[in-house]
Amino acid sequence: MTKLNSHTCDCIVIGGGAAGMMSAVCASQGGASVILIEHTARLGSKILQTGNGKCNFTNLHMQADCYQNGNPDFVMQVLNTFPVQDTLDFFENAGIYHKDRNGYVYPHSETAASLQSALRYEVEQSGVTVFTEQSVLSVEKKDGSFYVTTDTDSFCGHACILATGSKAAPKTGSDGSGYTLARKFGHHIIKPLPALVQLTSDNPLCKAMSGVRSTGTVTVFTDGHPVASDTGEIQYTDYGISGIPVFQVSRYAVKAADSKRIVTAVVDMLPDFEAETLITQSIKRMYQHNTQDIVTFFSGLLNKKLVQAVAKSCGYPAGTTMDALGKKGIAKMITAFKDFSFGITGSRSFDAAQICQGGVSLEEVDSQFMQSLLCPGLFFAGELLDVDGKCGGYNLQWAWSSGHLAGTSAAQYCISQKGTHYDSN
Question: What is the Cα Rg of the chain in Å?
Fold first, then answer.
């Protein structure tokens, strides 16, 4: 049997994403010797995907309702320990100046790679020892210390921070392995499901609408009751619907579909118009264009592919003329534009999801320190926990705030444990 290389430190951080790097930096700055273990070849790979590569890393408008998990008050308590301004100051000190668009904050360079590089440099400058391409096989606590075993090394420390991410975007390293580690310490895992994800539908007209991007309002209904709504650019696909407003309401649709409830997404394709006004205007215009086909007639309002699909759903062939459609037909078409239904069957997989809903139960974590209530010295940060925010930088702000609090608290814990068991110095 190959002998493992052995390493000791004050604090072991497992997971080299946004939350893990922030945790490691803050623990080191707090006076702890820190080892950071990452199972991929590079730190912060998932950061490169945020904001379509531009990295929307926080938001100036930070409220509890921006977080959709069951305990937003917990989230806000943590965020208040390291709020948005602290995040901006941290990254400006690291050389990342920012710009905002309606509250959405990006690096001034508008490149995610610049923020990733700055954070990795902070890890290096803080004196954190980094081990990459190390798969954690086990974590256990014995005699007051944490022992971590990988395929090539063993580690021992006073404190351990789990910042392994969720199951979303597994190609970046978020493979869900942290759930198994948390369970070993008795923690309950709220079932992880995709969030900020595209929704799949059984509507037979999806393929006919595929490729269109159009402003609309999407409202999710579960068992006939509205539960969430958002407005923006909707993307129509061959499998269902996508786009930011769909992402914003997706967690409710996914959770309900997973519970075998009836889920419907109703799209208002013309949110800027009142139905009655539009009907009146269209009837008036019909008399001047009574020989025009319905697709051409309505193409000034909507993409022709959408008009064709709606007409088909109403039972009108694409070549139907306006005089054949008549007043009742106009009312029926416009009502359908304002109230087009997609039966939701679920969502795209974890591969396509930006984040997860579910994770380590917040009931078992102390919001003052991000410390486990079941195992002293065990801390959590980031998406491993049952926290999911909307699009707009909210999930990265959760990573910064929870990572800062976990790292700072872990350092304080380590200092309190100095002289007991082993001393890393």
Answer: 26
Q: How many CB atoms within 10 Å of residue 225?
A: 9
Bridge partners of residue 200, in order along the sequence: 240, 346
Residue 329 one-letter amino acid? G
Residue 59, both tokens? 């938001």
Query: Tell me: the pLDDT tens digits for 197-207?
Result: 999 999 999 99
Instruction: Give the C-alpha distances (Å, rounded to integers) separating 274 from 245, 270, 328, 353.
Output: 20, 8, 17, 34
pLDDT digits (tens, 9 = 90+) for 295-347: 999 999 999 999 999 999 999 998 999 999 999 999 999 999 999 999 999 99
By three-state DSSP, how is residue 70 classified? coil
Judge contact between 310 and 336, C-beta under 8 A.
yes
Torsion from C-alpha of 48, 50, 56, 57, nearest 10 degrees? -70
H or E stretch covering 99: strand 98-101
Q: Which of 13, 21, 12, 29 is nearest to 408 (CA)?
A: 29
Burial class (CB in 10 A: 0-12, 13-18, 19+), 388: buried
Separation of alpha carbons 255 and 313, rounded Å: 28
Query: Cα–chain-centroid distance for residue 359?
Result: 13
Cα-based angle 358, 362, 367 (whole degrees, multiple of 5): 140
What token pair was written down for 267? 């799209």
